[in-house]
Structures are given as structure tokens and as C-alpha cells.
Amino acid sequence: MNFVEFSLGGFRGLVRQDLVEGLSESRLSSLHKEVATASEGVLARRRNQVVVREFKIDRKPCQVAVKSFGRQAEWKDGYDKKRGTKAARSFEAAVYLQDHGVGTPPPLAYLERWDGDRIAESFYLSAYLGELQSFKTRLTNLYASKGPCAELVSLLEQVATAVRKMHDAGFYHRDLGNQNIELLPDSPSGDGAVQFLDLNRGRIRDQLSPEERAKDFARLNIPSAFLLIFIRLYWNLKTPKDFERQVNKQRRLFTIWQKSRLIRHPIKSIRKAWKLRNHPTSRIEDIWIWDDRSAQASIMLNKADRRRCYSWLNHCKVAYSNLKAIKSVKRSYDEQLKKAFSDKVDLSQRIGMSLEPADVEFEPQLEFLYELGHIPVLLRFGHHESREQWDRTLHYLNQIHEQGHSIMVAILQDREASLKPESWTSFLEYIFSNIAGKVETVEIGHAMNRVKWGVHNLTEYRRLMLPVMKLRKKYPQIGIVGPACIDFELHHTVAALDHLPKGLQFDALSHLLYVDRRGAPENKQGRFATVEKAALLKAIASTSDRCNDRVLVSETNWPLEYTAEWSPVAASHVAKGTRGSRVHVTEEQYGNYMIRYLALVLCSGLVERVYWWRLVAHGFGLVDERDPGGWRKRIAFKMLQTFLQELGQATFIEKLDMPESVYALKFVRDDGEIALLWCNARKYEGPWPLAFDKALDSKGEAISLSEVGDEPVYLIKTKQRTSDYV
Fold this sequence. Notes:
Elements: E1 3-8, E2 11-16, H1 25-29, H2 31-36, E3 42-45, E4 49-57, E5 60-68, H3 74-83, H4 86-99, E6 107-115, E7 118-127, E8 133-134, H5 135-145, H6 149-168, E9 171-172, E10 181-183, E11 194-196, E12 203-204, H7 210-217, H8 224-234, H9 243-259, H10 261-264, H11 266-275, E13 290-291, E14 296-297, H12 303-309, H13 312-339, E15 345-346, E16 351-354, H14 363-372, E17 377-382, H15 387-402, E18 407-412, H16 415-419, H17 421-435, E19 441-444, H18 458-474, E20 479-486, H19 490-498, E21 508-512, H20 530-543, E22 551-553, H21 587-603, E23 609-612, E24 623-624, E25 632-633, H22 635-647, E26 651-655, E27 662-669, E28 672-679, E29 694-696, E30 702-703, E31 713-718
Parallel strand pairs: 16-17, 16-23, 17-18, 18-19, 19-20, 20-21, 21-22, 22-23
Antiparallel strand pairs: 1-2, 2-6, 3-4, 4-5, 5-7, 6-7, 8-10, 9-12, 10-11, 13-14, 15-26, 24-25, 26-27, 27-28, 28-31, 29-30, 29-31
Helix pairs in contact: 5-6, 6-8, 7-9, 13-19, 13-20, 17-18, 21-22
């Protein structure tokens, strides 16, 4: 770029050569007024004003962004006389970034006029690139639309890559707020798509220190969990040791400085707080994003920030509810555990399957469902979804109802449901009015013990359940179940039941009983393996006056390895080719654990029905819809199909005595007896618990049985008379 020294009408500076003819003395003398009184092309109207004006460049009219810097304190003028004015520093920084291939609007000139030792006027001129959209606005729009998460991660990656390039070039921005990062509209990712503005505070270094890089992160307003993703993307997944700690330190210091604004600028701070009082993202803990890849709410906050969402008062409420219940629950738990596997259990209609109506093509799901047989179905409606999506799901629901399937509906809340009760109530009324007469059960609320699902305390949970009272009376034929807490955090289940609105009682206790973090379902968490956890759920249901003693598992699965962001326990961004955490399993392990889980919780008599989450899902389903060869049945699909064919109409009789870590469950059906046999992390070579005519592996293939391991096998004895067992 060819810049020349410029001096005219008291102004001096540097100007791109092809702009010199467009700067007349009369234009310069009126430029301040032109900026101040502009009614069109205004980009910023603060102390420093930015407007778009027309100048002749190379004798052709061109749009130019003119930034006029306001008057400042005398001591700052003295500093700028030595260091350079804001206009001069902006110009120098822009030239440097342009020379190093970093995005910023091309600089055209800086002009300043001094009155003795005071700056009278100063301007920075740059090329106008059209309507840019700030990083702040892009984020706000994503938050308002509640995602999708993939688009948010893509935006973070684009900006993080550009920030890294700027830092590697040796530029320390020192004012890197969301509003100072702009993006070209409809521009593909890559160099120049991200534009950095407000460069006057910047410093040029040979090389930035880790502390300087961390300080530039301090002003970025990104939810803490996604800030970690941003950092990983910035470092291309190889974050230096202690860098996250340095970023957190600088952000804490910046937060303290921000809070001091109330003392430094009280009136301005109060005005801003009032203006943002009803803004949906004015509190970062209220941001809620849907992740369509893993079919769940995104984790927006890190663990420390999530903990801050739960007040001490809420902890006290949870503790008090459990203190009241602990004695009776403990007594019932001992009784339930003794009774486990002691009663006959008819397995028909005990296993349900979840389908995805929103993010996966639906008709192929029905074809796979019909291959499994006439089993119960679960469909979800989300408050975050559009009316159009609700209507599509209702269409699918009607289709399944016409096929004669028993249907359960799960209703998901988001953060807005907690903040805007009237919207939540309207949503519930719409869904109930359209499913009445077609649905057996409705689960209201979802994982209320997880901040990411939008409920931050028991008061909010009670408020969510208030409209259910009216719906219960209006639609008495629909069973209402809950509280649908997740994982082995049953103290939250007790507290949620205790804080239901007065007069509301669940028809069953529903729970999202995941045990994946322990690997096999027989593995213990303390003293509790899957059966013990189910017994504790049954004990809570049996002793509570807020629900019947039935227990439903409305969601469970295992996450599959190498499924990246589609895994339900992965972060929203995962490096390509990464296996996943220790809880991820192979497709074969997934199938083995599924069959063993179903057999244990159902045959124990502790759980009435299990809905598997879900039929089709790349990261956790029985069918992989993202396989390069098309939709592919995983081995678990065949395993479940075999289980339903062999035992779906059978009756459990007894749990047979076997050596440690060897499990054998005996069933009877019209044509004979069956033993389901497996081991947990060992091999077993007999003796066999049943004299059998044939043996099948978990996929239904006939085998010559010599030993049994983690894979369940079926020992089948055919006989004529079975009335003694029925």
C-alpha cells in the first residue's frame, strides 16, 4: 500500500495516495460536522462516532468508513502527543494487520488537527466493506434461535482461527470484545472472513507472551463451557499447560473491573442494567442451545459455573426432603432388594423404543421399528421446537397410533420454559389437546437435576409442574409420570417429588437410569449396581405419597466410540478420529450391555418398562444413519430383535444360583423353557443351568456351546407341557 504524508488546512497525517485528491480543505473543515450530523450510514454513535461517507478514490466515488474520535482529558492528549493519537495508532495497527494477512478493513488515512497541546480533531478512514455483522450479534442470534450447536461451534472455530492468526502475527489487541470482531456477510470461512476493529489500544510485538494471549481472551463474552472449546480451537486442540488457568485468572480480573463500573460510572451502569433487564441473554446462565447431533441440550457452563446456579437455599431444600424420607426409603429398599427376582414377570410389552421425530428422517425409522415387532413407542416434544415441528411430530404420532402401538410422550423443557411460564403453559395445552385419546402416558419435565436442561432450583421445577394440575383434571385418561431425573442422583428425585404442587400425584415414577459410567450394568457404584439402583427407585416410589409405586425407565443407552460430537457424553466439539472417553463402548459391548441391562431391571420386578434411547442415532442408537454405506443396523439391533423373538412373550420364572459374576435367568414360554446366560468380565465353561436342546448366541445364531463370556446366550429346552410354570 502506497501512503504519503499529508498536510492541509491544519490537518496532518498519512493518506493513501489515491485518496489525496478527494481531501480538499473545505471537506476537511466540515468533516467533523458531517460526521456528527449524519442521519444515514451511521455505524456507531457513541463518544467515538463512525459513519459511512462518500469520497473520491482514484477519482471514483467510493464508500469510506470515517471514525471520529471524541475530545478527551488533557493528560490523555499529553500521552497521545508522545505515543500517537488513537487515529494514528488505529492506522498503524491496520497497516500492520493488512501486511500480515489478518482481516481488518483496509486503512485509507489518519488525519489529526492539534490546537497547541490539545487534540482538536482526529479521524481514521478505512474502506467500507458493506454491512458487517459483529461476533456479538451472531452469537445473540444463535442464542435467540437456541442453536443449533453445530453452527455455534463452526462460528467459534472461524473466530478462534482468526484470533490465533492475529496473535501469531504479533498483534496484541487489548480490547478484544465480541463487538470488535466483525464478520463479512455470506463469506466462506477463511482468511478475511473475520475482521478486527477498534485497534487503537493494540500493541505490536515480535512475539506475544502466553499472558498477553490470555488477556485478549478476558473480554470475550462466551459461556464458560464453550470458551474452553474456543481455547482448544484456538490452539488447534493442543492447548499449552496452564493456559486455561491463565485465561480464567484474566477473566476474573476483568470481571472485577467490570463490576467496579457501578462505582466509576453509576448512572451509565444503572441505565444499561435497566435496558437489558428483559433481554433473553442478559444473563449468561440463561443461554440455552440445542445440540441436534447428540439430541440434547448443550452444556453451556463449566462445573464451577453450574454449581453457582444452585443456591444454598436449594441445597437445603434437597437435604431437608431427603432427611424426611431416608428412614422409610431405607426400610423399603431392603425389602425391595430381598424381593428382587422372586416373582414371575411377563415380559410382553415391557420394552419400548424411542424414535426421533425432529432431527432424523422418520419414515425409515418406522420400517426398522416394525422389524422389532409391536412394541411400545416413545416420542418427544420440545418446548424449544417450532409449532411446525410439533405438528410434524403429531402427524407421526397419529401414524403410530393407527398401527396400534402403545405410545408414551416425553415433554422437554428449555430455559425459556422456566423463565416464561405462560409460554410453557401454552405449549403443554397445545400438546395435550392434540394427543388426548392416542397416548397412554406423558412424562413432563426432563433431567431437572441438570442445569443444562434449564431448571436451576426446586422453585422453578414446581412452577413448571403447576399447569399440569389443570391438564390432569381435563385429560384424566392420560397417565402423568415423572420427575424424570437422570443418573444415580436419587436425592434429587426425592426432592422433586416433595416439591410437586399440592394435590399433584404421578401415576408412576419415571427416571433416566444411565449406568454407562460404570461400564457393565453389573458393575457397582459404591454398593449399587443396576439392580440396587432400581431397587432404590422402587423404594422411593413405594414410600412417596406423590406417586404410585410403579417405576419406568424412560431413557438409557451406552455411548458409542468414535462417534465424536454425536455421542451423548462427548463435548460439543471433538477432534476427528478420537475414540472418546472411557465410558464409550464398542458396538458389540453396547449390544451385550443392553441385553443384560434389560434382563436385570425387568426380571427383578423392580422396573415395569424400559424405553431404549434410541432406535436410530449415530452416537448411541441401534441403527447408524451416518454410515457411509447408508443406514446400517448395528449388531445391537439384531441382539434386541433376538431378545424380543425369544423372550418378548415369555415369563420370567427365577434367577438361578450360579458362581460369582455368572448370571442365569430362567423363562418359560408356550413351547418350552429358556435360560439366558452370561458372565461379567470372566469366562464360564459349565455346568449349564438348563438341559437344553439348542443354544443360540445373542444374534439368534445356533452355536455349539463350550463357554460363555460377556455375550448373552440362550439355552432352549423344548417340551410339550408347561402349565406347571404358568
